[in-house]
Amino acid sequence: MLKLFRWLLWLTVTLILLLVAGAVLIWYFAVRSLPDYNGSYEMAGISAPVEIVRSTENVPHIFGETDEDVFFALGVAHAQDRLFQLTVLRRAAQGRLSEIYGATAFPLDNLARRLGLQERAEASVAAQDSETLAALEAYSAGINEWIRQVNENAMGKGAPEFFLFPDQITYWQPADSLAILKLLAASSSRAVGDEVLRARLSLAWPEQGPAFLSPNDPVPAPYASLFPGARMAPPRRSLPENAYPDLRGFLHPGIGLGANGFAASSDRTAADGSLLANDPQTPLTVPGLFYLARLELTSGGAIGATIPGIPAIWSGRNQDLAWGLTPAAVDDADIHIEEVQPGASDRYLGLRGWTQFKTDSAVIRVLDGQSQRITLRETENGPLVPGIDPGLDDVIPSGHVASLSWTGLSREDRTMSALIGLMRSDSRETAAKAMEMTVAPALSATLADKGGVTQIIAGARPMRPDGHPTGGMMPSPGWLPEARWTGISSIADEADQGQLAPGMVLATEEGPDGLRRRRLAYLLMDREVHSRDSFIATQLDVVSPAARALLPLVGANLWFSGEPTEAGSPERQRQDALNLLAEWDGGMSEHLPEPLIYAAWMRELQKRLIQDELGPPAEDITQLHPAFIEAVFRNRNGASRWCNIVQSAPDEDCTTIARQSLDRAILDLTERFGPEVASWRWGDVHYVRQNHPALGGISGLGWIMNLTQAVSGGEYTLARSGLLGSGNNPYQAINGAGYRGVYDLADPDSSVFIISTGQSGHPFSSHYDDLAELWRRGEYIGMSLDPGLARAAAVGVTRLEPAQ
């Protein structure tokens, strides 16, 4: 017995020592991939020594003799801190995520290959101007040189993720950066999703269904009337759980990106200098999409937010100009329904009769699985895209397929040249001229210089015939001449600011309700004079204009005015909830119960209004649509008919539905948080879980890699924090301002910025999440172009020497 005990003890100690040794070994090799910010490296591809001065927050300030050397060093910095992210973004654009993630990434790869993002990017390289080509080539060389340094000096594979995922890294090419930009363009657009949903609504309720998305517009002709005699696929009960691909590529087509951009000229500011603010809104991952950098170019210093893989500052400033980019509300894509010739699957109905598909094939390699060969088909309208939207199958008649026309399919896309030109511009006029080259995504560019502020819309817009059968609002028959685009026109116009006061401009991601824009306009016009601090307060505003608009309407006949009912009863809970909401200003603070009561009430209300009329499509509508609820409770165009539940015997009115919805919402919250209404907190459910797109889901690593933080705000606040809308916690925040910047041209070095995580993508780096808490609290870090300040606060200076 004693002998057995000794053997067990020896075995246990041995296993513990092996585990400790293994952990130490893993830690050692992982730490070796941390870059030495005080290192000196000989590198081919630069003409003279270059310095990368890292500020306290690890923001690289890059100083070189030529612009090409500076872009080279930006490539090095991106690769030092975000090498895995660089490769994942490239794989997402190329359709090669399955090679490292396996079969779960196949839908993303399938779509990227059908869109041909990489191929069209390669064709667009020749369309760039000479300065942009030089920047792309130098940037690519910088990434490749850092990869060479990693390989030759055994620097832990360059990123710890490569210990668990395949680490074959091909050399970077200029086309790779253009492909990532095309991926960003595809991710910015919601046009396809809106078309498909509107068609599904029309099929569910031809007379009123499309009014859900556009309650103030005339209801279009029924979608089914476009295909007389055709048999539509039966709608599914709901979309499968994996219908929306995860964010392993940080971006994917159709997610819809947003931003706010606003500016005030010097005669509207306290310090006699223009102000500009911008906050691009993206899915929140760790690391985030944005990376802060300062480039000292021959045209002057430029500082702001870059995107790894793209050698341009997306939002920032130089000595004379500040700029911020917002996706423009341009309907840049159309789905066409193509009829396939019976008995000949390789032919479709074109303008001149049955026409051969343009056909190619591609092989998608799958980790730990069989490679998949896919057939790529293209019509005169564009490529076939069967997986572009989860609900698309519901609206395709039998014997038909779907093709896509999209401005981003251009093979002469000069958007990268526009971004590089914008960064070098010294005035609003030269910036506007540079933005004329934009194709996709279409952008609202907010510009400020010492002379004033401007906002322009730049990009490509489809030209649809006047007799277009759907006006681009729903998929259209691809064989009709009147459904075809007649071309693409370039937009480079000054944006209409409506009734906004002179010296003010704004842009915001907007829907048919206009609530966010009205809130932003109100805050800008509420003060005669603005300061940097007032712009910061506006950028961080968490008052919900949707709550302010809807609660007086929905609760008009519910506010309690009699004696309190028995404590603990459902009626008393309703009274308590209504009393709280009656005194609430609409602020979606994480510390309050009112935002949670409001969100749960409106979620249940919308569900009850649409479920019986729309059927299966209602289960896939997870975002609140305030314009629809407002139209119903104001009975616009008879919209109150949505309040009656068709399957029930009595005729319900809107007050009844509002009360039932509130009671159900309170019951759900009580089961989760207890009966004391005043003790509920929005932050208990409204938190952002910033997952690492590769390692965050691996058991045991998630607690190291992922960040979880309670946040204020909501879907319609200026400090946007969109809701998941489904699952066990539909109130979880899934997107927000991945970057915030406020630029003060009266005192440029007092400008500030912040990103949602940290500069480094390495979990063992102190800069992995050091900015996350500042971002959550609404704080910023300084933005200076003063070389002396950068050097004085440097945590390291990396020196790049020309190879001998």
Automatic annotation (TrEMBL):
The keyword Translocase does not apply. Keywords: Calcium, Hydrolase, Membrane, Metal-binding, Transmembrane, Transmembrane helix, Zymogen. Ca(2+) binds at E195, D331, D334. GO terms for molecular function: hydrolase activity, acting on carbon-nitrogen (but not peptide) bonds, in linear amides; metal ion binding. It holds the Pfam family Penicil_amidase. Binds 1 Ca(2+) ion per dimer. The keyword Metal-binding applies. GO terms for biological process: antibiotic biosynthetic process. Its cofactor is Ca(2+). InterPro entries: Ntn_hydrolases_N, Pen/GL7ACA/AHL_acylase, Penicillin_amidase_A-knob, Penicillin_amidase_dom1, Penicillin_amidase_N_B-knob, S45. It comes from the Bacteria. This is Penicillin acylase family protein.
